[in-house]
Every structure is written in C-alpha cells, then in structure tokens.
Amino acid sequence: MANTYTQILVQIVFAVKGRQNLITEKHRESIEKYICGIVTNKKSKPLAIYCNPDHCHILIGLHPSVSTSEMAQDIKANSSKWINENKWVMGKFNWQEGHGAFTYSRSQLNQVVQYIRNQPEHHRKKTFREEYISFLEKFEIDYDDQYVFEFND
Predict the structure, then answer these.
(1) What percentage of the chain exceeds 70 in pLDDT?
(2) From edge to edge, which strands make up the β-sheet containing 9-15?
(3) Alpha carbon distance 57, 11 (integer Å)
(4) Are 54 and 15 in contact (CB under 8 A)?
C-alpha cells in the first residue's frame, strides 16, 4: 500500500462469555501482552489495553487493510485459544459474540489512553453495562437491548 497514509484510532471493547469474572489479576498482564502481539501481527499498533475480569478495552492504531470486525475476531479467537491452552480457567474460556468499536481523533488520543489505563478506578463508580451503554449513546449508535452483550449486573 505504497503512498497510503492513515490515522485510524479505534477502541474495541468485548466481554467474557456470560460476563464471568475469569480474567484474574495473576494472568491479566500476560493476556494483554498476548493480545498486543495479535494486534501487531495484523500490521496494527496497540496503543492502550486493559483486561478487566469480565471485559477488555483495547485502543488500536488500525492498519487500513484490516477491518475492525476482522481485528476483533482474530483477537478473540486467538486469545481464547491461548488462554485455554494455558489452562488459566476451570472449564472453557470464551469471549461473548460481538464487540463495540469506537473511533477517535488524534486530539482525543491521550484522553482515551488514560481512560483505558484507569479502568479499575472507573469501574468502582460505573458498571460495565453503564459504561457500554454510555459508549453507544455517546457515539449515537442505534442498538437493540436484546442484542447488546449479556449483562449480569
């Protein structure tokens, strides 16, 4: 893609199947590093990541040849396979179907990075459901409650 210059900043958000708290602090950093490797292998740049016990946020400088759906699918499929191979959860680990993808401008980069890095503090005040619905509303995305992630709040 010679002479193609882009800046595509996208935050992808996805949840653990059944919204179970399966990502432990003990393994969180390893999972985040593995996911960053997946992103890098897709010619994209991981800018910030935080895996909460039941969901994950990742900000990516997305390569123009990769769709957000393809990126989310690869991250979820490969990371769940890797988590299962390492036997880090009892039973089988899976991410829920679907994801959220939200784009940002360069001027918002630092704010979004700090938001993602500050997830533990943020979730002391707001549930994942509240957070996710606020993203959908902020970005004016039409949604049907029955097709939004399974929430156990």
Answers:
(1) 96
(2) 45-51, 55-61, 9-15, 100-104
(3) 7
(4) yes
User: In 3-state terms, what secondary structure has residue 31?
Assistant: helix
Token pair of 38, please? 């997946």
CA–CA separation, 127 and 72 (whole Å): 22
| Residue 44, C-beta contacts closer than 8 angstroms, at least 6 positions apart | 60, 61, 62, 63, 66, 71
Task: Report the sign of the C-alpha dihedral through residues 145, 134, 103, 76, in that order.
Answer: negative
**Opening angle at CA 70, ends 142 and 82, nearest 5:** 115
The rounded Cα 82 to chain-centroid distance in angstroms is 16
Q: Is 121 exposed, middle or buried (0-12, 13-18, 19+ CB in 10 A)?
A: exposed
Position 146 confidence tier, pLDDT thresholds 50, 70, 90: confident
Confidence of residue 4 (pLDDT cuts 50, 70, 90): confident
Q: Which residue matches tokens 């969901």?
A: 55
Give 125's contacts (C-beta < 8 A, 6+ positions apart).
none
DSSP calls for 49-90: EEE-SSEEEEEEE--TTS-HHHHHHHHHHHHHHHHHHTT-SS
